[in-house]
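Checklist before submission:
- one chain only
- standard amino acids only
- sequence pasted in full

Submission:
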Amino acid sequence: MTVRTRVAPSPTGDPHVGTAYIALFNYAFAKSHGGEFILRIEDTDQTRSSRESEQAILDSLQWLGLSWDEGPDVGGDKGPYRQSDRLDIYQKYAHQLVEEGKAFYCFATADELAQMRAEQSAQGLQPKYDGRGLRLSETEIKAHLDAGDPYVIRMKIPEEGSFKFNDYLRGEVEIPWEQVDMQVLLKADGFPTYFLANVVDDHLMGITHVFRGEEWLNSAPKLLKLYQDFGWDIPELGHMPLLRNPDKSKLSKRKNPTSILYYQKMGFMPEALLNYLGRMGWSMPDGREKFTLADMIDNFDIKRVSLGGPVFDVDKLKWLNGLWIREELSDEELAQRLVDWAYNRETLMSILPQAKTRLEVFSDLAPLAAHFVSGIPEYDPALLTQKLGEEKFRDSMQFFIWELDNLRQWDKDVIFGIAKTLADYFEIKVKDFLEPVFVAITGKTSSTSVVDAMEILGPDMSRARLRVALAHVGVSKKAAKKLEKSYRDYKAA
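Returned file contents:
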């Protein structure tokens, strides 16, 4: 048997270090067994998926030094490797389950399901699909279908007992069926959900081992039952520990930069970042902290993964990156890395139009352009609130960050449009709205255009700097809840 593993990221945002972490361990497992590693794109969320995000995923994993044997860019005989290109396959298998009595049509509207959940919550019950679709007669189902009523296809779940399975890393796991919902397999728009698409794809692509994050552990019964319903061989399934912030909370961009491209922009070596991810819950047999990908593969045993949540500590990553710089790069190699990183013609050509109007001597360039080739700027946090005050700065900055998080087209005109709309909403001048943004992005009160700077810096570094600025002021849990409600109202207006 040829070992085949995969990573299946969703192109709905910045390429996440958690994706790289899961990809690395699947890659190392496959290669340590002389197997194959596949990249598949899960783009069935059509409202959030984008080709720009997909390309960023490909670029970031390649930058790290991970390659794949099959994928949307390199092809393979098990494709297509983009789920949006496989819709007819999922629809065929979903309807097959209905015909075999293992899944069913549900014609309930969104309003009906919302009322169902509200009634369950009022009774102190955990909101859960109540099986109403199973109570429809054949005549009623035919009438709905003949009328062209929209429907979803849901899988049947036992009402009693529990599901037991052997997790490759955790041993026997048992989960009561009462905790498992009747999962939607095919949505009303004809697109599959995660569960159907993954099972069908993993089977047809010959995936033998699936290692995914532990947040998916409770959904394992649905996944594995689908294999049983289809009568297919079940791959080995293992759940990796989640990456944690230093305070042991789940790694999130609110507390730690999570985008791979942020670390690229910061000037980390890809070898060091991959090395650090390899140390997340795993270690070399001889205990050394610095090792290459080849070293990891040669010594890899996934059974040695520690199930305690590994802490992703940026300061420790910086220390390891320093080791790589000092021990692995000659002066000539370091010079070339610096040129490739930021001091290249492409970067200079993007910066010079901004700086040229302010240049009197060449030596003016370094202070003018420092924020383009640096990490998080240092400044007096009082500069952030001197124009708007603390409360209005906090509210407007949080809204700005949330809007930028959802931005699919990173363009200075679009960014300025968001700033203008928010300035109007908060009843402040756009110049005053942008003043703390200017400080957060450049670390100064005067420099080149801030929206031009954000376009050049890119989404990862720009949003990281804005989050640091917001953290300088702080957002309490009470304030965060209030802000989330206000933002929902803003989006609904």
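Reviewer check: Strands lie at 4-7, 36-39, 103-106, 152-155, 162-167, 171-176, 184-186, 209-213, 236-240.
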